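Example 3.2
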Amino acid sequence: MKFKFKEKIKKVIMAFTALSVVSTTAIALTAPAGAATYFTNYTPKIKYDSNKNIDYCYFTKGSSTVKLSAGKYFVNGYSTCSSHSTSPELSGATCGCYDGAYQCYGFAAFMYDGVFGKKLSSSYTYEFGWGTIDNDYLFVTENNLKRFAMDVPIGTHIRVRTANNNQHSLILAGRTATTITVYDANGGGSNSSLLESGSSNYTNHCQINKQTFTYANFAKRYPRIDFINKGV
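Structure, written as tokens:
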């Protein structure tokens, strides 16, 4: 059975909550930050593995190839932002920016464009309709997450919430019959007991993680999905 979504023809609202160890203040971007690291001039590219899952994201800078793989940073690829803030458009933060979004949302937008060749800001938003009229979301369980993961394409942007109601952006990087793998930036470390072997668990500002969960453990880490974008 296919997973059913409620489709809304609207642009993604480029707001985010940083899941950092410092703050979880949600903001809406209104103007670019002069000190931000802009990726506008770079073309995102995706390296896939033999199973057609996402291995990592990268871009070229002159004659150099910059990998945005686990452990790197969505800043310049090499080091953490020198001025991290959950209000980058006001503070002059040096967090990475792409398609009008910063930090976790900006990194997700960069990868999304690499997968689909389409801006996240102009993609359809799919909501679930399982909440109230004004508050649509999916309560994540092991079973419905597995159905969901098998029904959407690799590269799907997943807007999640933690048990503490902090919003975060993930990119679906891979799935098996028992596990789901996601890429993110500025997410902070997860409870290590929830992660499968080989997952990264970095906590520095704007640092990139690639994490694999069982479906049950993902549901513990991210018990709610607000909406998704899947390349349309």
